[in-house]
Amino acid sequence: MAANGASCDKAQKRAGGKDKQNGKFTGDCMSVRARRQKEKEERLSLLFWRRPVTTLHYFLLETLIKIKEWTLKLWQRRGAVLLFLVLCVLFSTAYSTEGSHQHYVQYLEKKFLWCAYWVGLGILSSVGLGTGLHTFLLYLGPHIASVTLAAYECGSIDFPEPPYPDQIICPQDGGMESNISLLSIMSKVRLEACMWGAGTAIGELPPYFMARAARQSGADPDDEDYEEFEEMLEQAEGAQDFVTRAKLGVQHMVQKVGFFGILACASIPNPLFDLAGITCGHFLVPFWTFFGATLIGKAIVKMHIQKLFVIITFSKHIVEQMVSLIGSVPRVGASLQKPFSQYLEAQRNKLHHAGGNTPADENWLSWVFEKVVLVMVVYFVISIVNSMAQSYAKRLQQQRHLEEKTK
After folding, report:
1. CB 365 within 8 A of CB 339
2. Which of 219, 331, 354, 397 is the most exposed place for a label (fewest CB within 10 A)?
3. Rounded CA gap, 258 and 187, in Å?
4. Highest mean pLDDT of the ranges 15-29, 218-232, 355-369, 382-396
5. Is residue 373 part of a domain?
6. Per-residue pLDDT tens over the stretch 148-193
7. Cα 342 to Cα 141: distance, rounded to the nearest angstrom
8. How many CA atoms lie within 13 A of 293 on its CB side?
9. How far is CA 147 from the centre of its chain?
10. In this predicted structure, what is the pLDDT of residue 129?
11. Could you tell me how many helices (H) and strands (E) the chain has, helices first?
């Protein structure tokens, strides 16, 4: 088989004018690209709602392969695994042994699980698993919004633990709304937000290591994102469309400015940052330069911007103004305003009843919110199934190419 699509242009340039004159190499490259495009379309058509049996079958096979790969990787790092197991045994012993240390052990357990939960959600959001679904919209954003609304209603951020963070209940002594500020609410959700941001930074590492290994080995990896990056570099001269020029701008900033360029790109909501890991790996940017700047940008700078936006949006006076504006809509305003007002009133009542048995009026707004979240979670799971099934289909295509080469 001829060179792959990403390296075809490079090979053609190295081939010189003779191949260009007879057109043989150009034809081979075109056939390779057409074949790769066809294979990509075949993989993308492998969806649960179109081919459920095949998708589930491929998903299970890909899951087994991933388990095997991770088992081999853990065996290669058995020293670190053994140290981790020893620490787990020590912690388990301390956890099950009665004594005055139990209070500290339980506190560490609670904080560790809480941090691991948000880091995991951040990794899922950054890696995406082929879904494009942002866990900030599903989990962290609603959590910050709930804390914001509760803080203004309770006049305090000292929610009793437990049940917080699983459930928010106003403290019995109450407080004054004037004591609530943006900084106090931000400090209440800082741990969750920073852990989620750290997870998104960790999720940028796989493409970095992939591109770095490919550059050091001199091979062109069979990865669509990497191929897109190399094609972007090939077409850099004379690029006119906005997306290509924007990607090149990110690439030049990362390459020339280094740490501060990566920090600037990671500190703002930047959809083009997806290629930053590949860019840094391709140009052999040191690991701690890339990861350090990404971690600071995503876990500290950008997360404070996002927190501030959500807190301001869900502040009490702004929410009341939004409900008032809904009521001013001609004809349908009153009917739309009523369910929103009922929903907010029900949430206020729940915050002031520790038993959680408030007979809150169920309305169609809360029902819709619950169903929307449920649909998004189901879509998230199905998208993971689709992505892993497509990964297995790609394995089959690569295996078929190798068999053709050996014939």
Report:
1. yes
2. 331
3. 31
4. 382-396
5. no
6. 888 888 888 888 887 888 788 888 776 666 677 888 888 899 999 9
7. 22
8. 21
9. 22
10. 43
11. 20, 0
CA pair distance 12, 292, nearest whole angstrom: 39
C-alpha span between 317 and 326 (Å, rounded): 14
CA pair distance 40, 388, nearest whole angstrom: 14
Structure tokens at 349: 């009542």
In a domain, 126, yes or no: no
298 within domain boundaries: yes
Q: What are phi and psi of 330, to 5 degrees?
A: -60, 140
Tell me if 244 is assigned to some domain.
Answer: yes
- Count how many Cα atoms sit within 13 Å of the Cα of residue 5 in the half-sphere of its side chain: 21
The one-letter amino acid code at 71 reads T
Nearest to 233, CA basis, from 218, 254, 248: 248
How far is CA 381 from each of CA 117, 158, 223, 252, 377, rounded to the nearest angstrom?
A: 17, 35, 23, 36, 6
Q: In total, how many domains does the chain have?
A: 1
Torsion angle, CA of 35/39/44/50, rounded to 10 degrees? 120
Residue predicted with more confidence, 197 or 213: 197
Residue whose C-alpha is closest to residue 163's, from 353, 316, 307, 347: 353
